[in-house]
Amino acid sequence: MEKDLARIALFAALIAILGVIPKIALGFGVPITAQSLGVMLAGAVLGARRGGLAVLLFVFAVALGLPLLAGGRGGLGVFASPTVGFVIGFPVAAFVTGLVVERMRMVPPAISAGLGAVIGGILVMYAFGTVGMAIVLKKSLVEAALLNTAFIPGDLLKAGLTGMLVAAVAKLRPEMLPWYRASGQRI
Predict the structure, then answer these.
(1) How many domains does the structure of the chain reveal?
(2) For residue 10, what is the domain's CATH number?
(3) Which parts of 26-151 fold into alpha helices (H)?
(4) What is the tens place of the pLDDT at every residue in 1-31?
């Protein structure tokens, strides 16, 4: 139990730290940041439940006003900005990423984590982000989805990086991956 709480807090902190990496501002109010990598890693390393809880803790801290989002943003105002869908979708994205890796236990960790990051960390996150952008920017879903295409190359890179990092963890410290350890799989 204590290990789970520590890992959940650690990944919430990792996502916050990734917010320190300078963002790349886009003209429509949603920046390119490294924080989505933290969301992908939380789900891929911790699994669905723990990963989702880690990201939910991060979002809760942001809602309380801690300036943890890229650019030092935090507080309830974030939930009225074009990034609202992404922020709300973070925990769901981590959960789905974790769910994919848990269901693909017999697949090499690089592949299951990379695929989980694509499904959860890109498709699910974009679904939430697109709806949020459409509402706040008063655009159609198609227009908002087209704006999101600017993020695809970077997010595919983050998904690949997630797969590589999880494969390295599986090889060096498999006990860090509860879903992997439970599968009995060896590299």
Answers:
(1) 1
(2) 1.10.1760.20
(3) 35-46, 48-63, 84-103, 109-116, 125-137, 141-148
(4) 788 999 999 999 999 999 888 767 666 666 6
Residue 18: domain span: 2-180
pLDDT at 93 over 60: yes
List C-alpha distances in Å: 187 to 41, 140, 160, 174. 20, 46, 19, 10
- Residue 177, sorted as left (phi over 0), alpha (psi -120 to 50) or beta, turns out to be beta
For residue 78, the tally of other CB atoms under 10 A from its CB is: 20
- Residue 24 pLDDT: 74
Q: Please, are residues 40 and 90 in contact by the beta-carbon 8 Å criterion?
A: no
Q: Which residue has the tokens 């609202």?
A: 84
For residue 19, give the nearest of 46, 53, 55 by alpha carbon. Answer: 55
* The one-letter amino acid at 132: G
Could you tell me if 156 and 122 are in contact, meaning their C-beta atoms sit under 8 angstroms apart? yes
CA proximity to 50, closest of 184, 176, 186? 176
